[in-house]
């Protein structure tokens, strides 16, 4: 995941940069102005704009999945577009931190933008694709919602605890607490893309349904999202940073 959280974080994978107090104070003043033409735009840094592109890719993935649901199921063009936008979101998620470090500018607004963009691109988008390929029973929807809420909780927890995680000599956290949300997204999306390529979606989903014909009917494939959700929110899993 990518959070430029606190005065010390920037870019992909919860990476930190040195604090820029003066620049952040200037941004806070611009954002707090009661009146001012384009004050929000003036307050944004280049890294913030790149983070916005992450959110853009995530939302375009969601819209592509919705367009697929509205059209002919045999035409998977929009479904592939939904898959296509997710790695582009990851690219911008990686790139915003590099730009922040290059320009030596952290951003108060970027701290929040990172988590919000990640939730869209790596939480809501893959869940939307899961629904589009056939995880559409009521219980499936609850399981997909569980995944999104785990992503939301994981991002919020990082925002709160990043300052308390052990740091290396450069000031970066030594590990991820729980699996990063991009990892959860890419693993589930890779499996769904493979199933789409093999035409194993909708009625052809592997393992079929469980509790078929009852109010609790669900597709066992949806358990993939449960596993990723649990791994994201685990505190006992420490993933070393590269």
UniProtKB/TrEMBL annotation:
Enzyme kind, highest EC tier: transferase
Spans through the membrane: 78-95, 141-160, 181-198, 218-237
UniProt key word Cell division: no
Location in the cell: Endoplasmic reticulum membrane
Keyword Membrane listed: yes
Record-listed E.C. numbers: 2.7.8.8
GO BP field: phosphatidylethanolamine biosynthetic process; phosphatidylserine biosynthetic process
Pathway(s) served: Lipid metabolism; Phospholipid metabolism; phosphatidylethanolamine biosynthesis; phosphatidylethanolamine from CDP-diacylglycerol: step 1/2
Catalytic activity: a CDP-1,2-diacyl-sn-glycerol + L-serine = a 1,2-diacyl-sn-glycero-3-phospho-L-serine + CMP + H(+)
Disordered: annotated segments: 1-21
Major localization listed first in the record, in broad terms: endoplasmic reticulum
GO MF, any single term: CDP-diacylglycerol-serine O-phosphatidyltransferase activity
Membrane topology: Multi-pass membrane protein
Top-rank lineage group of the source organism: Eukaryota
Keywords: Endoplasmic reticulum, Lipid biosynthesis, Lipid metabolism, Membrane, Phospholipid biosynthesis, Phospholipid metabolism, Transferase, Transmembrane, Transmembrane helix
One GO cellular component term noted in the UniProt record for this chain: endoplasmic reticulum membrane
UniProt record similarity statement: Belongs to the CDP-alcohol phosphatidyltransferase class-I family.
Name this polypeptide is given: CDP-diacylglycerol--serine O-phosphatidyltransferase
